[in-house]
Amino acid sequence: MFLFDLFFQTTTEYQSFNSPEVSDCLFSSEEDSSLYFTYSGECNELEVTNLHYEVDTAAQIPWYEKLSEFKLPWELKGDKQTAINDLSLRVRSGQMLAVIGSSGCGKTSLLDIITCRDEGGTMTSGQVLINGKRNTPQLVKKSIAHVRQDDRLLPHLTVRETLCFVAKLRLPTHFTQAQRDQRVDDVIAELRLRQCANTRVGNDYVRGVSGGERRRVSIAVQLLWNPGILILDEPTSGLDSFTAHNLVITLSRLAKGNRLILLSVHQPRSDIFQLFDLVVLLSSGSAAYFGAARDMVPYFTALGYPCPRYCNPSDFYGRCKNDFIGYF
Ligand SMILES: Nc1ncnc2c1ncn2[C@@H]1O[C@H](COP(=O)(O)OP(=O)(O)O)[C@@H](O)[C@H]1O
Ligand SMILES: [Mg+2]
């Protein structure tokens, strides 16, 4: 029993009890393996100012489906919906910014606008600046790694094969094979994928690594080319709480290694919330709060809306769309 407790106190690693690494974990601290994949490039800054984004929901209905309305094309009115309203934020290297809020509040839209992948909408005002320059697809490709919510990986390759394949395609041509292999090993170590490195990735139909491991492979694919800015859309969705917590710990370590991390999370647990440096709380596309994560509860308490005892702040304030819309 003592050994069991000691294991969980000593390490937060997601390890199997049969793994040979367990004995190492028992007697080593978290610090030993961390931060050797530090980003050594220049500091980055991401700024969004007064962003207003509208989507035309009517434009997505094909013209032939509208024929039933017996109207000529110029008589059809667009159906505009505001997805993001007057949003401003700023984050720089070394910080982890979490975009939190209920489903449909505009988290994915925001990340897609930043990475120039928004479709079906228009930015009516505001701008997105990466190191003071407007975001263009070329600039985004050079400086930002975007991990989307769905894992787009080849199911029949193993984790190591996937990474070697991407290393061949994505790393600069002057890299030697030995350097590419070294980079793959570094990423596998950084994202704790050693135990499943030779397992097939799999998907919904092909059994492979676990869901949490597959999410980490998606992150590893992006981390391979050592980006300074990492953007992740709901990286913890679909994961159990223990794996989700470990994943955010990994992201927090990456942020401390001089990276800029921007992620969206749908109402995180309180232990995950504590790991964030900055938080944007979105409510129907508007920012209800932007600032340090630890100041969020005092901010709302000062406004007269304290978080009830034993209640998770992101659960409580994340409901603002439905319950508190009047006062935010
Ligand atoms: N291209 C689009 N076409 C139609 N509606 C969209 C589009 N993009 C976003 N929306 C709408 O904007 C809102 C925010 O969507 P989204 O950013 O995906 O929310 P979240 O990721 O927070 O769940 C939703 O109501 C969604 O229906
Ligand atoms: Mg989303």
Automatic annotation (TrEMBL):
InterPro entries: AAA+_ATPase (IPR003593), ABC_transporter-like_ATP-bd (IPR003439), ABC_transporter-like_CS (IPR017871), ABCG_dom (IPR043926), ABCG_transporters (IPR050352), P-loop_NTPase (IPR027417). It is found in: Apical cell membrane. Transmembrane segments: none annotated. PROSITE patterns: ABC_TRANSPORTER_1 (PS00211), ABC_TRANSPORTER_2 (PS50893). One of its GO terms (molecular function) is ABC-type transporter activity. It comes from the Eukaryota. One of its GO terms (cellular component) is receptor complex. SMART domains: AAA (SM00382). One of its GO terms (biological process) is cholesterol homeostasis. Keywords: ATP-binding, Cell membrane, Glycoprotein, Lipid transport, Magnesium, Membrane, Metal-binding, Nucleotide-binding, Translocase, Transmembrane, Transmembrane helix, Transport. Its main location: membrane. Residues 46-309 form the ABC transporter domain. Pfam families: ABC2_membrane_7, ABC_tran. It is a multi-pass membrane protein. Belongs to the ABC transporter superfamily. ABCG family. Eye pigment precursor importer (TC 3.A.1.204) subfamily. It comes from Cyprinodon variegatus. Its cofactor is Mg(2+). SUPFAM superfamilies: P-loop containing nucleoside triphosphate hydrolases. This is ATP-binding cassette sub-family G member 8.
